[in-house]
Every structure is written in structure tokens, then in C-alpha cells.
Amino acid sequence: MTTGSSEPALAASPYLKPGAAGEGATIDGKAVADQIRKEISASVALMKGKHGQVPGLAVVIVGERKDSQTYVRMKRRACAEVGFRSFDCDLPGDSTQQEVLDAVAKFNANPHVHGILVQLPLPKHIDEEAVLAAISVDKDVDGFHPLNIGKLAMKGREPLFTPCTPAGCLELLDRIGADLRGKRAVVVGRSNIVGMPVAMLLLKRNATVTICHSASVDMASIVREADVVVAAAGQAQMIKGSWIKPGAIIIDVGTNPIDDASRKLGYRLVGDADFDSCKKVAGAITAVPGGVGPMTIALLLKNTLTSAERFYEGKVSGGGGGERQPQPHWSTVVLGTLAGAAVVQGMVRRVLSASGSRARH
Ligand SMILES: Nc1nc(=O)c2c([nH]1)NC[C@@H]1CN(c3ccc(C(=O)N[C@@H](CCC(=O)O)C(=O)O)cc3)C=[N+]21
Fold this sequence. Notes:
Blueprint (H helix, E strand, L loop, with lengths): L15 E2 L7 E3 L1 H23 L4 E7 L3 H17 L2 E7 L5 H13 L5 E4 L9 H7 L11 H8 L10 H12 L8 E5 L6 H10 L3 E5 L6 H5 L4 E4 L17 E4 L3 E4 L7 E4 L4 H5 L4 E3 L5 H22 L14 H11 L3 H14 L6
Parallel strand pairs: 2-12, 3-4, 3-5, 6-7, 6-8, 8-9, 9-12
Antiparallel strand pairs: 1-2, 10-11
Helix pairs in contact: 1-10, 2-10, 6-7, 6-10
This protein binds 5,10-Methenyltetrahydrofolate.
5,10-Methenyltetrahydrofolate binds next to helix 2, strand 5, helix 6 and helix 10.
């Protein structure tokens, strides 16, 4: 395979499985996710030894959508495997808005819960915007709270949590050694949970970013410019090999079921990229399944661990610089147990913001 100067040069990586002669490599998201989960298990063991506590993740699901139940089951199993506590709230599909908000409020107030995830999509009669805004920003491990999304969109700001699937895409690019600076990145899809936030993350890494969507004209020629393609349109196999610049990296976020009589279940999962034709042209491409999907769950665990570390150790990670202050919810809980005095809380805040230092409770 030839690599032009504008394409990200990929060093050998244990997570790149070489393709057949002349074909691109496959990015093994499952292997990266397994590695991250190992790292998380080790951190949980440390936390248990030091604080006698483990991270806790609460998952709220409303209704009986089959796919949502599968994802939630996977998340709960993943929690158990790394030693987290998981907290369940399964609400019937005809629950009221208030019942969903009450479930969120209960987890906001529970000090053993460090992350809250409300499985999307919610039933139509529930106001998603109101529910996501009700999650304490300190426990917003999905990164969907408007304050976290707002900071993600702003230069020089860092959200407390980054949405899991977009963060998983960037983690994959990092772990295979892709350099994004000055590269052309094209995101196909503009959803709140993937397309938009992944574009923001690529921009923060100094890529030149284009977002394509259903109204884009001649999408193929736009995608052809890309050194990195993130496929997040939710359309099975829409991106063809003929759209791909030779050597480009393709991160495929799609998980679309298509009929397949040869499978036990009668279907199989495919991505938004047409894997076989894209692989022939790309430098590297993620598999589906086994690519971005497992990374989403690994990053959810990582965000939950980070949240628990902030709570028990006052650690602030993410390189946000001097602007970060202890967030209202955690500082109230922690300082409440330490001193119970609003005066002290105000003083500590002032000291922390003046020194621009990390929050140490
Ligand atoms: N609040 C919220 N947060 C989410 O993060 C969220 C959500 N709502 N709603 C639905 C989407 C979807 N999602 C996936 C997670 C794991 C896989 C995954 O691990 N997939 C496996 C295959 C799984 C299978 O075989 O069925 C893979 O790609 O290898 C896929 C998709 C998280 N989502």
C-alpha cells in the first residue's frame, strides 16, 4: 500500500491486524477495549484497598426496546467484570416524565453512585432534554449534559466527561498511533450522541473537520478528501470503497442489523461502511462488530472510574487547566462531611480557583 504525505502514517500497533496483500488493516476495538478494562480493574483494586469503596454506575432504562435491553445488559455485565457496583432502575414504557426525573434524582443523591446513564432513545412522551439536564453534571458519565456538551464545543474548555462512543473513536485513533493534526477528517452523521461530539473532539485535535449529513450534496466527493472517516449515519453499508481515499483510516460507528439467513438469529450486524469494498482501499478500518461498540462500553467504565476517583481522591484529570473548580454537587457532599460549613466551602473554592490547582479534598 502506498501512503501519500497527507495521510496519517501508522506505526505497527498490536491493535492493527494486517489485511491481505494490498488491503488495509483491521482495527481490533475488542482488543483495545479488553486492555482498557484490565487497566480499570487494576484501578478498582487500588481504590478498594485505599478507600474500601468501588465505583458505582446507575443505568436507567424506560420501556422494553429489545436493542436497548441488550445494550443495558452488556453494560451491567461489564460493570460486574471490572468490580463496579451497578444500580438498576427499569421503568415501564408508560412511565411519566416525573417518574423518570425521580429516578434520576434518587441516583443524584446516592453517594455510592458515581455515574448515571439514562439509556436512549427514551419513549416519545418523555422530554429527553429535560431528563439529560437533570443528571448531576458530576455524574454525567455519558457526557450528554448540556454543560458538558457546551464545554466540549468551546475552545480552551474541557468537559467533565466526554461522550463514550466519540471518546472511544479517538481512543482507537490514539492507540493505533494516528496523528490527526492538520489532517482532513470527515464525519458522516450529525447526531447529538456521536456525529456532533466526535467532530468536536477531532477539531480539538487540530484536524480539519467536515460534517456530512442527509442534505449534503455529492457526499462521495467530500468523503474522498478524508484522511480519517468517521461513519456515524446509521445507514447500513452506505459508504463504499469508491468513496475512500487510498490509505485513509475508517472508524465505523454503525451497528445495523441486516437479514442473513445463514445466521442462527436470521440477521447479522454491519457497519455504515461497506467493509469489503472499503477495506481494499483504506489504510485501516474498524470491524463491526468488534470495533467501536466494545470501546463505547470501555469508555463508559473509564468515565465512571474517573468520577469515583474525583469523589474519593479529589483527583481531576483531563488536563482542563486552571479553570476547573470542584463541582457543586461533589464539593457539597465532600465538604459537607468534612466540615458542614458553607463558609469553608466558599474558602476552599476560592483557594482552588486562585491557585488553579487540582481539587484535593
Ligand atoms: N445513554 C446512552 N448511552 C449509550 O452509550 C448508548 C445509548 N444510550 N443508547 C444506545 C447506544 C448504542 N450503544 C452501544 C454500546 C455497545 C455496543 C457493542 O458493544 N456492540 C458490539 C456488538 C454487540 C452485539 O453483538 O449485539 C460490537 O460492536 O462489537 C453497541 C452499541 C450505546 N448506546
